[in-house]
Every structure is written in C-alpha cells, then in structure tokens.
Design goal:
Elements: E1 17-23, E2 25-26, E3 38-39, H1 46-59, E4 69-76, H2 84-97, E5 100-110, H3 120-126, E6 130-136, H4 140-145, H5 152-164, E7 169-176, H6 183-195, E8 200-205, H7 213-216, H8 224-240, E9 244-247, E10 250-252, H9 259-265, E11 269-274, E12 278-283, E13 288-294, H10 298-302, E14 308-313, H11 316-327, E15 334-335, H12 336-343, H13 351-359, E16 363-365, E17 369-372, H14 374-378, H15 380-384
Parallel strand pairs: 1-4, 1-11, 2-3, 4-5, 5-6, 6-7, 7-8
Antiparallel strand pairs: 8-10, 9-10, 12-13, 13-14, 15-17, 16-17
Length: about 400
C-alpha cells in the first residue's frame, strides 16, 4: 500500500463478532458451484459432525473470550439436509460456549428440493430466525441446466411455508445471466420471486468458476450487452418493487438487510467452524488480525484432533486493501473512522489511491466519508488496483 503521506498506526478496535457454520453435504453437486460441498453418499454422519463442530468451536475460544456472538450463518452445502434436532444441538452448544447477543440473527441456507416443508417450524423452534432459500430460477429449463433438484412449484411452496412459519425474515437466491437466458425470462424470475413477498432478495450473475463442470464444459451465456441490459433493467424493477440495493448483489425491504453479511462487508470479525470454513478475528492488544481456515474434506475433518488447517496473520501493509475489498461491496459511504478502527491504519494511508480514483470519477470525498459514484460501483475491481 503506497502513499505520499506520513501515516501513523492507529489502535485496533473490536468489531462485532459473527459465527459461520459450514455443513458440506448436498444431494448432488451443481455444475456451477465452486463451494466446498460434497454429494451425499449414504446416510449423513449428523451426530458425529455436530460433535466435531462444537469441539472445533471450543478450540477457538481462546480467540474470543469475553465477547458475544451477534449473528450466525449456517451455510453449505445444504444445511437443511440435517434435521432440526441436530441444528438445535449446534445452536445450544454454541450458545453454551459463547453467549449470544439479544435479538441475534441466525440464518440457515435451505434448498427447496431437500426440505420436508412441515419442518420449517421445527427449524424455527430450534433457534433459526432467518432462512435463505436457494431458488436460482423459476424456469424449469434453467433449473435443469443448473442441475437443481427442485422445480418451480417446490420453490414457491418453500417461500410460502417460510412466510407462514414465523421467521423474522427470509431470503430468496436468484441468478441471472443463465445459459441461453432471454431478457424476458430474467425479468419473469424477478416478478415471480417478488410475488412471494420475500423481505430479502439476493440477485447475482452466474459466473464460470475454475474447478466446476461449467468451467470444463462451458454453457452458452448471454453476451455482454444482453447481460448489462438484464442487470440495468433488473435493478430498476427491484427498486420499483420496493427493494433497496445495499450490496452489489443484495436487495432488501427497509429493515431487512442481512446483518451477518453486513458484518462481513464492514470488515467485522467471524469465527468459522466446519469443513473448510474461514474465519477472521481481531486481537487489539496484540495489534493482530488473523485469518483461519479449517480442514477441508469431511473425512479429514471428522477424524481430526485439531481442526485448524491454517492460521495466518494479516500483514499491516495488507489490511487497507483487504478492508476495501470487502467494504466496497456496500452501497453506503465508507466512514474514514471505521477504516481506522477496523484496520489500525491512519486514513492518510489511502490518500494517494483515493485521489487517483477521484480524478477518474470513481468516488467522491467529504471530511468523514468516501463514497463510490455510479461509475465507481461499475468498476470496483478497477478502483481496487489503485491500492495494490
């Protein structure tokens, strides 16, 4: 991180603490997915895996003594393959180890094709307050191309049951830029989703990632002009439907932003437990920010005595860029004080790069904030190169 300004180290401050819990199994691996997920092969070792998760968390206690957990996200894989009793064991065990804050947000990912819908109330009783349902599309053709195991009706029923089961909020995941997807099909997905009245929508473009089936056998995707038309018009449609874009691919009704994801993007702290889970923890007294990675494969994880595969200190000179890589995903202004408290770096560290970005029309600046322009939101990766 280069700068012509003289900078002074600042004291780190503890941000909110979250917990990410990874459950790695799916019914089958989707061709676009590069997450650490594994197709189900026989009966899942639910009880043994929950035991391992809680021991994993116990081994991380030295990082967070005296703190509370403000949000939890149970992701995967497909966590709804685990029954509500095991989800309750996880949450009760975690709460016994690290106290939960009042009004904690606890999100669980769910796949419409794996849920017995009568179980929604059971997951709610287990402590889950928010669901994130992986719909991706309401088109039969597109669901087949994406390797999804549910159909349009199951997706709609799942959303309706989530609404009826007393959850404080639920999210629907939608993708656009799908193989051979027309503009009309993309807009129809938004309309169908909005008719189900989810408080939150994640709407993001399909990207072809390495080590996926789509990477080895690429499908025919819409061209750049068509993708831009879908994105631009989709944003306008979502806004007209009452959804505020607060992150690059996240839209919410007022008051229903995902607190867990906000903590990620604001460079907050989070423990990660489970196969391949990542964590980030601030240790102010030691002037350290560390990142942790857990053992990736289920067999290795279940047989381990120490679940941490890697623990790395974030170098002081890398903190500013890491902060920006997260914070620039949000649509809100970047508080200069937040930058200092979360990184331990003086705001002057960014002076040179911010000046270049301002000259290119990518952001504006006030005494207390930096704010991306519309052009800046379109060219975030280009902006980040100013700080490398």
């Amino acid at each position: 991180m280069s700068s012509t300004a003289v900078t002074t180290a600042m004291k780190l401050e503890l941000p909110p603490l979250s917990l990410y819990i990874h459950i790695p199994w799916c019914v089958q691996k989707c061709p676009y997915c590069d997450f650490n997920s594994h197709g189900q092969n026989g009966e899942l070792p639910q009880e043994a895996y929950v035991d391992a998760l809680l021991e994993d968390l116990r081994q991380d206690l030295h990082l967070v003594q005296g703190r509370q957990i403000h949000t939890i996200f149970i992701g995967g894989g497909t966590p709804s393959l685990f029954d509500a009793l095991q989800i309750k064991r996880i949450l009760d065990g975690a709460n016994a180890l690290i106290p939960f804050s009042d009004n904690i947000e606890i999100t669980m990912e769910a796949n419409p094709g794996t849920l017995e819908h009568d179980d929604f109330s059971a997951y709610r009783a287990a402590g889950v307050t928010r669901l994130s349902i992986g719909v991706q599309s309401f088109s039969k053709d597109k669901l087949n191309l994406l390797g999804r195991i549910h159909d349009q009706n199951e997706a709609q029923v799942a959303a309706q049951k989530a609404s009826q089961a007393g959850y404080l909020s639920f999210n629907l995941d939608l993708m656009h830029g799908l193989p051979n997807q027309s503009f009309a099909e993309a807009m129809a997905d938004i309309d169908t989703a909005a008719a189900l009245n989810p408080p939150h929508l994640s709407w993001y473009q399909l990207t072809i990632e390495p080590n996926t089936l789509f990477h080895s056998k690429p499908p025919q995707l819409p061209d750049d002009e068509a993708l831009w038309h879908i994105y631009e018009q989709g944003q306008q449609k979502l806004a007209a439907l009452g959804y505020e874009q607060y992150e690059i691919s996240a839209y919410a009704k007022p008051g229903y932003q995902c607190k867990h994801n906000l903590n990620y993007w604001q460079f907050g702290d989070y423990l990660g437990i489970g196969c391949g889970a990542h964590g980030k923890v601030t240790l102010p007294e030691e002037n350290r920010i560390i990142r942790t990675v857990k053992i990736k494969h289920p067999k290795g994880y279940l047989s381990a005595s120490n679940y941490t595969f890697e623990s790395i200190d974030v170098a002081e000179e890398d903190r500013a860029l890491e902060y920006l890589m997260n914070r620039l995903r949000l649509m809100t202004p970047i508080p200069k004080q937040e930058f200092e408290l979360r990184t331990g770096q003086h705001r002057d560290t960014l002076t040179e790069g911010m000046e270049k970005a301002k000259q290119r029309g990518l952001l504006t600046e006030s005494a207390e904030h930096w704010q991306l322009t519309s052009k800046g939101h379109m060219f975030v990766n280009d902006l980040l190169t100013q700080f490398c």
